[in-house]
Amino acid sequence: MKSKLTKFLEFGTIRAGQIVLLGLAAWVCLSPPLLTQEDLQDYAYWSKLCESLTKAKHYDDALTACNSAVALNAKDPLIWGLRAEVLLALGQYPEALTAYEQLLDLDPHQSVAEIGSCETFYHLQQYQDAIFACESALQIDRNWKNTSPQRAWYFRGEAFRELKQPKNALFSYDWAIQLQSNYSPAWVGRCRVLFEEKIYQDALTACKKARQNGASWDGFSVSLPWLYEGKIYNQLQQYPQALKAYEKALAFHPQDVISWSEQAQIFEKIGEYQQALTAINWALNLSPDDSLALTQKCAILNHLNQSQQTSPDGDYNKALESCEQALQKGNGRWGEFGSAYAWNQRGNALIGLGRYPEALVSLEQAIAIQPNYGDAWNNRGVVLWYLEQYSEALASVERAISINSNDSDAWFNKGNILVTLQQYDQAITAYERALSGNINFRPPLAKANIFINQSAVFWRLKLYQQALITAQNALDLNPEKLAQVNALYNKILVLMSLQEYERAKETLSKLLEIDPNHPEAQKILKYVTLSH
């Protein structure tokens, strides 16, 4: 495709003086004159074109014009400033830095050039140099032109934030706000630092200030405060508010992979796996090789299979494929646990496929990368349990519990292993700890499964009333079909043990409505009928 500049230089298809009728009005559309050789060697022409295209944000064409101007006159600071601005906008940071250095060689006392250098150093992750350049900008000519001292203070704050110096960062943002109270980038900067310092309520206040009426954004995205509000509400486990914040962020910036990815994470946490899959697919449409998004898709597909929800992508092979793509072809953008997250979810997919030795290798790789990754230790315990290595399995889930004593999944799996070892009293205690952990932020199925297993153990201990109560607790949660069947089956066994055969028969009828082909149904019906 030809650039706008190339098209502009060509002789137009509409001839000079041709009349084009638009509705009732007639306009004379004159094509640009064909440029002469003299025009092409005219520095003033190219510099003005560079300037006008830069203002219009047609950066590719602007760079062509700026380069032509520089080739004709490399001593004019104006053209180097424009060229540097264009290169910065295009994300060509090393070239932008060279242009700013050339500009400062020609005119060493330009605050605008120093701010540009500061921004460029920041994007190059050279944070100390960024701080020095921003401080220089604040000290020299203070002729800000199309920028401002607020911007210098903001990027100084951003550099300090990246250097993990929150006090210096907040000091910089506060200076920007003192200069202009509605300077929204600085409020977002405050919000981000306070979020990272886990001062969540103050962070929320700052983000809300950023989006107040009359906010000045200075070219930054209006979506940013909403994105960070979503992050804060996520940490506060206020998931409905988090989802609303991400919806707002995406309304302003629908191309933001991070917002789609984090929205998917919330849906996954609350058990809305189909919506999670939709959100993560949007992220992958925008960035097909995003390592974190590919791993999230793997995790969501694992959950869909574990919860028996139907999905066009719902099998463990597709989950495995997504995790392997993240590890082998991903762009290296990872979350809190790095690539260990992908190895862990890969292990989950392999567990679902019954490939336990391979799953064990994958989970141990996750642990090698992140030794304090509780979820990987927990899943390793599950694999060892399936491999009938019960002592090692118990040790693995206990390691997960030592990392997070509130981990309901680890307590649940500890209970399951203890049942296998016929240590029923200890299993009941483990299930109770699972019910008092972080299970309340999980989908109903997870809690129902704890009640179901607890009911079975109470039945084995001949504690029938407790068994009946816990089976009914599972049913009251209205879980997925398989969990309902298991809870009803446990309830039938308890009622039979209590010799309440009529109630057992009624419960069996409910079970058969859900699962007409239950393998034990006819045997139970015969027993109940004869006993009754």
Describe the structure.
This protein has 532 residues and is mainly alpha-helical. Among the domains are: 1-108, Serine Threonine Protein Phosphatase 5, Tetratricopeptide repeat, CATH 1.25.40.10; 443-532, Alpha Horseshoe (Serine Threonine Protein Phosphatase 5, Tetratricopeptide repeat), CATH 1.25.40. Helix content is 71%, strand content 2%. The chain contains 29 helices and two strands. The chain has helices at residues 4-9, 37-40, 43-55, 59-72, 77-89, 93-106, 111-123, 127-139, 149-162, 166-179, 184-196, 200-210, 224-235, 239-252, 257-269, 273-286, 291-306, 316-329, 340-352, 356-369, 374-386, 390-403, 408-420, 424-435, 444-460, 464-476, 481-497, 501-514, 521-531, and strands at residues 19-22, 25-28. The protein has a two-stranded antiparallel sheet with strand order 1-2. β1 and β2 (25-28) form a beta hairpin. α6 (93-106) runs antiparallel to α7 (111-123) and α21 packs parallel to α23.
Put the structure in a nutshell.
The chain is mostly helical. Helices cover 71% and strands 2% of the residues.
Structural class: mainly alpha
Overall, the morphology is elongated
Please summarize the sheet with the most strands. 2 strands, antiparallel
Would you report the number of β strands?
2
Radius of gyration based on Cα positions:
32 Å
Q: Helicity, in percent?
A: over 70%
Q: Calculate the terminal CA-CA distance, rounded to whole Å.
A: 84 Å
Secondary-structure arrangement, i.e. CATH architecture of the domain at 1-108: Alpha Horseshoe
Overall pLDDT metric: 89
- Assembly of the depicted chains: single chain
Taken as a percent bin, the fraction of beta residues is under 5%
Poorly predicted parts: 1-34
> What is the CATH superfamily classification of the domain at 1-108?
Tetratricopeptide repeat domain
CATH topology name of the domain at 1-108, in short, is Serine Threonine Protein Phosphatase 5, Tetratricopeptide repeat
Helical segment count:
29
CATH class of the domain at 1-108: Mainly Alpha
**Biggest sheet strand line-up:** 1-2
